[in-house]
Specification:
By secondary structure, this protein is mostly helical. Among the domains are: 1-80, no CATH class; 91-235 and 248-292, no CATH class; 298-383, no CATH class. Helices cover 71% and strands 2% of the residues. The protein has helices spanning 6-25, 34-52, 57-71, 77-80, 87-104, 107-119, 123-138, 143-162, 164-176, 199-215, 224-237, 243-269, 278-291, 296-314, 318-326, 334-341, 360-373, 379-383, 387-405, 408-417, 425-442, 445-458, 460-467, 471-485, 497-504, 510-538; strands spanning 181-183, 189-191, 343-346, 352-354. A two-stranded antiparallel sheet has the order 1-2. β1 (181-183) and β2 (189-191) form a beta hairpin. α10 (199-215) runs antiparallel to α25 (497-504), α20 packs across α22 and α21 crosses α24 (471-485). It is globular. The two termini are 42 Å apart.
Length: 545
């Protein structure tokens, strides 16, 4: 990522300060408290810096508790810093460390190569294999790391299909941008300043980026917007989405949208114009053979990861287990149920009230010492995670809490969204999805979610009657819709890290991403609106409230 010019950075920072001062010093609007006005000013400061990229996202996040304390929104710094100790932050720390273990022993790469060797029998199926591998890995490893790993693999596949010289020549031609005609890798002739790369080239790389974004929706730890949503729902409403609960939301979204993205890319936008991809399939098999048998340490990592994932799912089945116990199908005492799943009763340790040993954050944190005890990871391996994202979560929670406790988000929601009261549910969801996708194209999906999710939570009360739900249920429904939409911005490199990674490889032109992205953004706005509405009607009432 190119460094911002120091003078431009300073100018933007001054503009942020001036705007913040104007908002803080203006007459307090009716219905908004003074502290709420200061919290709103802080949101403008952070939002401006996030959108413009004046400072790294994490650095801006660290400034939030400082500004909240200076303004007196919080009486002391300790209260402003509580967001950085939220339990969900530690879930993501554990998730990142588990992902490091998978990457250390190349387990993620093996999964990708295996899928390609099994499925890559035609150009379209080869693209699908890459997308499926990317999406699956992105559910467990950060979408940024997944895209960074899969992009070189995708380029290696293309070199086998198209020839290394052809791929490199296309990149050189694109960089030179001479305007001369040059052979297209798919056959035929294209203008170098019009389309330097083949359709297979473009669909493969765009498919990699888009699959990393879509796949992250599948699990609670798959992408930062999911974490932002879960942490802010917990902070603002005291509402918690469990790991298993989220699977019932995320997996249907991925299962429907990922094949649709693949179909549009490979059948309409950039259909491959070659037939033989046997070399690429053979290359995947060869690479997989070169990896050799997984080492004993790698097998232990795979076992710990699988066990952790299974316990995350089992930990969300408390209601089902309780039903089996109450009906005599499972001989488990109340004390053991409380110990495993939590509750107000007495645990096997003789104390009243228990979080639950299978609580997904507890399970995640327990996996970290398990990796060390299994002699698979050292501290230096574990600590090398994306601490910037962790800090961004903390700053977002601190800001969301300040906006909520001062009434600022409710005031924003009433002022901006009240005109939509009484509108059809589908229209409300469509506007939320379109708004979030548009905002995400302008800035990172994490920053967008951090800014918009607290507002969507706060408008629950505005639309509760329209949706026929309680205030809390409406807030959950709308904020979940917004968080999901934040992973579906496909048009610009700045929208998501996977977009930036494949574009930064130098093997893709921005107009190619723009063409595909605009079409998919419009399609996904309609599809997500309908899909979210259907889930809201038939699934979410049994999952979220």
């Amino acid at each position: 990522m190119a460094q911002t010019d120091p003078r431009k950075r300073l100018l933007l920072f001054v503009l942020a300060l001036v705007g913040t001062a104007i908002i803080a010093g203006a007459p307090t609007p009716s219905g908004l408290s003074v502290r709420g006005q200061f919290a709103f000013a802080t949101m403008f400061f952070a939002g401006f810096l996030w959108v413009t990229g004046t400072l790294p996202l994490a650095v801006t996040a660290l400034s939030i508790p400082v500004l909240l304390t200076i303004f007196g929104v919080y009486a002391d710094l300790d209260a402003a810093l509580t967001g950085f100790a939220d339990h969900l932050i530690f879930l993501f720390i554990a998730g990142f460390m588990l992902a490091n273990a998978l990457q250390k022993y190349d387990i993620d790469r093996r999964i990708a190569l295996w899928l390609m060797s099994v499925m890559g029998s035609s150009p379209r199926r080869l693209v699908l294999a890459v997308m499926l591998a990317t999406a699956f890995l992105s559910m467990w490893v950060s979408n940024t790391a997944t895209a960074a790993m899969m992009t070189p693999i995708a380029l290696g596949v293309l070199s086998q299909v198209l020839g290394k010289e052809t791929v490199e020549a296309a990149k050189t031609t694109d960089t030179a941008d001479t305007g001369d005609s040059s052979p297209a890798p798919d056959g035929g002739t294209v203008a170098a300043d019009d389309e330097a790369f083949s359709n297979l080239h473009v669909s493969m790389l765009l498919g990699t980026a888009y699959a990393a974004s879509v796949g992250g929706v599948g699990t609670l730890i798959g992408t930062p917007p999911n974490a932002v949503l879960a942490s802010q729902l917990n902070e603002i409403l005291g509402y918690e989405i469990g790991f298993a609960q989220w699977l019932l939301i995320g997996i249907p979204i991925v299962a429907i949208t990922l094949p649709l993205v693949w179909y549009v890319l490979t059948y309409f936008l950039y259909p491959p114009q070659i037939d033989d991809v046997s070399d690429a399939r053979e290359m995947a098999r060869q690479y997989l053979e070169e990896e050799g048998e997984l080492s004993p340490r790698g097998k232990r990592v795979a076992l710990i990861f699988t066990g952790t994932a299974l316990l995350w799912v089992v930990g969300g089945l408390g209601d089902g287990v309780k039903y089996l116990i109450d009906n005599g199908y499972l001989p488990l005492s109340d004390a053991w149920f409380t110990t495993l799943y939590g509750g107000e009763g007495t645990s096997v340790f003789g104390v009243d009230g228990h979080q639950g040993t299978l609580y997904y954050v507890v399970v995640g944190l327990a996996s970290v010492p398990a990796l060390v005890l299994a002699d698979t990871m050292e501290w230096d391996d574990l600590v090398d995670i994306d601490w910037g994202t962790i800090l961004l979560f903390g700053g977002g929670i601190a800001l969301a809490d300040a906006l909520a406790t001062t009434g600022a988000t409710k005031w924003i929601a009433d002022s901006v969204f009240k005109s939509l009261t009484g509108a059809p549910i589908v229209l409300v969801v469509g506007i939320v999805v379109l708004l979030v996708i548009f905002l995400t194209e302008m800035t990172s999906n994490t920053a967008t979610a951090t800014i918009i999710v607290p507002i969507l939570i706060s408008i629950g009360g505005v639309f509760a009657a329209t949706l026929g739900l309680t205030d809390v249920a409406a807030a959950v429904f709308l904020s979940v819709s917004g968080a999901i939409a934040a992973s579906f911005a496909f048009a610009l490199p700045v929208a998501t890290p996977p977009n930036a990674i494949v574009f930064g490889s130098g093997y893709l032109k921005q107009e190619q991403m723009m063409r595909a992205g605009v079409v998919l953004n419009l399609i996904m706005t309609v599809v997500l609106t309908g899909l979210i509405w259907l889930l809201f009607q038939f699934v979410w009432p049994h999952v979220l409230w």
